[in-house]
Amino acid sequence: MTALTVDQMALVKATAPVFAEHGATITKHFYQRMFAAHPELKNVFNQTHQKSGSQPETLARAVYAYAANIDNLGVLGGAVTHIAHKHASLNIRPEHYPIVGRHLLGAVVDVLGEAVDQPTLDAWTVAYEQLANLMIGVEAKLYESASWSGFRPFKVIRKHVESDEITSFYLAPADGSSAGGFQPGQYVSVTRFVDRLGVDQPRQYSLSDAPHGKWLRISVKREAARGEAEPGHVSNLMHDGVGAGTVVHVSAPMGEFTLDRTPSTPVVLVSGGVGITPMASMLATLVAERSDRAITFVHACRNTRVHAFRDWLQGIAAGHPNVRRAVFYEQVSPQDRCGIDYDHEGRIDLARIESIALQPNADYYLCGPVAFMREQRDALIARGVDAARIHTEIFGSGML
User: Fold this and answer.
1) Is the entire prediction scored with pTM above 0.70?
2) Cα four-point dihedral sign 307, 55, 205, 140
3) What percent of the chain is modeled with pLDDT above 70?
4) How would you class 340 by CB atoms within 10 Å of its CB: exposed for 0-12, middle for 13-18, buried for 19 or more?
5) In sequence order, which ranges of 38-117 are alpha helices (DSSP H)?
6) Which residues contact 400 (CB under 8 A, 6 or more apart)?
């Protein structure tokens, strides 16, 4: 591997503002170039994110961050780990990186033209090789520790409606072997062929049960059309076309948003909407391990109709003195029972539940829409919680 010289590092860093200004244009063109030359890669990349522009924008931000910090890559450690888990879940392999590099650098030249001189292009070529080797090394360790390689056939042994929007699928290995282990909070990728697109499409779903080797459970929200956004291709296929006996292909569990099971200090799980899925796994694991940690489960949703795992959570809280819950309904309906289905009306407000949510030395796990997590994180920090004790999960695109 060729090492970046000091001058080349300076050239890459100097071009960071270019990606701030033109990055989305470059990355959108990059994907068009790459898919034209390698249409098989449409099976790997989320085509909905391509159409919405979120994937090109994510890549542009990642490239900008890399260029801006080329002389101090240590600050990108968390982002590298996050992306590596996404890549490993999608079975991104070393042979994909030269393809990406060739078309990414080609897109830079296509978009910027004569503004890119040869020394700058040479510097970016070496910089990309450095990044590719970094990612390949991190991903290799993930593959080595994974329960299996690539996508493995699983059979749906049970399908259970959790709410008007969320349905759970219990997945057991088609060959009858163990489902393997995972860390509560992790996710898997599931692929389905989408007729409308003519390609397989992977989607990542959090595991929503404790690890026990019998099955893996995912709980999928049906994504309806919103505004100009189309309904979710895979989520609707799962709800409407996948039942008991159907075989789906599943990646090994990945994800760095995981429950630390070693301390005895309190744990507070805060979720919004479908963000309840990894929290259900964390709570189920703590209960299965008969943990005596003080556990607070805080959840927000609209009302009973969309409240997944409602009866299960009621039973856990009633049967385990160390588990307390605080459920907020934003749109209470006449059939919703205060004190049974929910505890508070409105959005999550930590001021109303400080006595159970703010615990000394507690670890906080947040999952839900980005704005929701930002709001809860800010509220916790404002109340003196150490930011290092606040852990968040981010859904959506995050792939280089």
Assistant:
1) yes
2) negative
3) 98
4) exposed
5) 47-52, 54-68, 77-89, 96-112
6) 59, 62, 83, 87, 100, 131, 135
Only one residue has tokens 């509560």, namely 184
- pLDDT over threshold 90, residue 77: no
Q: 94: number of CA atoms within 13 Å, CB side? A: 10
Q: What is the pLDDT of residue 54?
A: 87
3-state secondary structure of 252: coil
Say whether 97 is catalytic: yes
Give 304's contacts (C-beta < 8 A, 6+ positions apart): 310, 329, 333, 335, 336, 341, 342
Size (the chain), residues: 400
CA distance 183 to 220: 19
Which one from 31, 64, 128, 139 is the annotated catalytic residue? 139
Give me the domains of the chain, ranges plus CATH numbers: 6-145 (1.10.490.10), 151-251 (2.40.30.10), 267-393 (3.40.50.80)
Q: What are the angstrom distances between the C-alpha of 49 and each of 136, 232, 247, 323, 398? A: 24, 11, 25, 38, 10
Give the tens place of pLDDT for each residue, 188-246.
Answer: 999 999 998 999 999 999 999 999 999 999 999 999 877 767 788 999 999 999 999 99
Average pLDDT, the chain: 94
Task: Identify the pLDDT of residue 1.
Answer: 67
Q: In whole angstroms, what is the distance from residue 169 CA to residue 157 CA?
A: 8
Selecting among 31, 64, 66, 97, the annotated active-site residue is 97
Per-residue confidence band for 397, with pLDDT thresholds at 50, 70 and 90: very low
Amino acid at residue number 179 = A
* pLDDT tens digits, 353-377: 999 999 999 999 999 999 999 999 9
